[in-house]
Write a structure and sequence with these properties.
By secondary structure, the chain is α+β, with helices and mostly antiparallel strands. The protein has one domain. The protein is 19% helix and 27% strand. β10 and β11 form a beta hairpin. It starts with 14 loop residues before the first strand and ends in a 16-residue tail after the last helix.
Length: 239
């Protein structure tokens, strides 16, 4: 974060995105691979860069007119709108969902929900700093504690989708802050431009993923629907 920007004031259990590269050589490598990858045929990207895959995905989401979707299915030819189940009206529609963020889709791509029953509590957001400026991405990633103890991870796929038919979720209030959410929805089918295979080792926040007790968390959510992420107090956040 720039030193002249105001301090971000979300609770400490929200995670910061690790630093992104700024050197010209790495950025040039991202641009060259992007040019080769976004041919529109949906092919798998032959990733040959020294930089971690998450940095490439974050660079694309930050700078290109694309959104990303994480899945355990490596062979999706076209995304069809599907009814989602979300407490938010934006996410509770029949749509194709994707994100303008590189890390959030990786969370969904690497979780093996077919073999390990689990509930998911997660978010990605940027604080509105005023004058059109936004803070660095912040995250919350949690799954059912019993599942987390079993290391329920898999190989997954990140799909790169054109942003043309997508609309972004409107900003929301979190306490006294306005936050921008990188969730996007398309009400029409979308054909992937390309895809990138990832694994749990590619997800830089894997060791900071939280585990929650379903019964306790759901009770808190029922009592206070606006209290996301229903953590009892900041002292329970991981080190």
């Amino acid at each position: 974060m720039n030193e002249d920007q105001p301090m971000q004031a979300l609770p400490s259990f929200f995670l910061s995105r690790p630093p992104m590269p700024t050197d010209a050589k790495t950025i040039a490598g991202f641009e060259a691979l992007c040019e080769r990858a976004l041919g529109g045929d949906g092919a798998a990207i032959d990733y040959d860069l020294a930089a971690p895959k998450w940095q490439f995905l974050c660079y694309l989401a930050d700078t290109k007119s694309i959104v990303l979707h994480g899945s355990g299915n490596a062979d999706i030819k076209i995304f069809e709108p599907r009814k989602s189940d979300d407490v938010n009206a934006f996410g509770d529609r029949k749509a194709v969902y994707a994100a303008s963020d590189g890390l959030w889709p990786m969370y969904f791509a690497i979780l093996d929900r077919d073999r390990y029953p689990m509930s998911l509590i997660n978010s990605s957001a940027r604080i509105d700093l005023g004058d059109g400026q936004r803070g660095e991405p912040l995250y919350f990633f949690s799954i059912t504690a019993k599942a987390l103890a079993q290391r329920p991870f898999r190989r997954g796929t990140i799909y790169l989708l054109p942003r043309d038919t997508f609309e972004q979720q409107q900003p929301e209030r979190y306490g006294d802050q306005t936050i921008h959410l990188p969730q996007w929805a398309s009400l029409v089918p979308v054909k992937p431009l390309a895809k990138l295979f990832v694994g749990p080792e590619d997800f830089p926040l894997l060791g900071q993923m939280r585990g929650h007790d379903d019964e306790t968390t759901f009770a808190r959510a029922r009592a206070n629907p606006a209290g996301f992420p229903w953590v009892e107090d900041e002292a329970t956040a991981p080190d």
